[in-house]
Write a structure and sequence with these properties.
Elements (H helix, E strand, L loop, with lengths): L4 H13 L7 E6 L3 E6 L6 E6 L2 E8 L2 E10 L2 E3 L5 E3 L13 H19 L6 E7 L3 E7 L14 E2 L18 E4 L4
Antiparallel strand pairs: 1-2, 2-3, 3-4, 4-5, 6-7, 8-9, 8-11, 9-10
């Protein structure tokens, strides 16, 4: 089955830019709709995926997705007069690119590289907060001080818990700290 153009563009871009990564990418399972990847020397709780329109890096632990540490999207649309633009960008901020691969490099691949080098490569800990039965979030920590964190993370809510008749505990449990670097 022929692979998506975004996968071919990502593979080509990785081949040309692999030496720019502080943490190497390990490509994994691939289908027509997604391409999984992980990071060499990084805890397997941190996993990534390239889909037909986005790159996501998730914090997964005990069979639960605790948070997305990174989520980048691009939605190419044909521009009048040629080229493509990202339909997700505000109209006043839209730039026209010669083709979809150029848009993906600008909106997905280069920001992904920047996040890996500026955040993942500097992380000492992956802190998992909350309760998977209600809401969770994850943070990359650069050192042992849990008040300092790197870019990424948000909040994942288990919406079925909102209708549960059992009251949620008043206080969240302490975070689960996982080392980012593994041998």
């Amino acid at each position: 089955m022929p692979r998506r153009k975004i996968q071919r563009a990502f593979s080509s871009w990785l081949d040309k830019n692999h030496d720019r990564f502080s943490v190497k990418i390990r490509l994994g399972r691939r289908t027509d709709r997604f391409w999984e990847f992980s990071f060499v020397g990084i805890n397997t709780a941190i996993q990534g995926v390239l889909t037909t329109y986005e790159i996501n890096v998730a914090a997964e632990y005990a069979d639960d997705c605790w948070d997305l540490l990174l989520s980048l999207e691009a939605e190419p649309r044909q521009a009048r007069g040629g080229g493509v633009f990202c339909d997700l960008c505000l109209p006043e901020a839209r730039r026209v690119f010669p083709d979809r691969p150029a848009l993906w490099v600008d909106h997905l691949f280069e920001p992904f590289l920047e996040w890996v080098n500026d955040n993942l490569a500097k992380a000492k800990w992956l802190a998992l907060h909350g309760d998977p039965d209600f809401a969770t979030w994850a943070r990359l920590l650069p050192n042992d001080d849990q008040t300092e964190h790197l870019r990424g993370g948000g909040c994942m809510i288990n919406f079925s818990a909102l209708t549960d008749k059992n009251p949620r505990a008043e206080r969240d449990p302490p975070p689960i700290l996982l080392p980012c670097r593994v041998s």
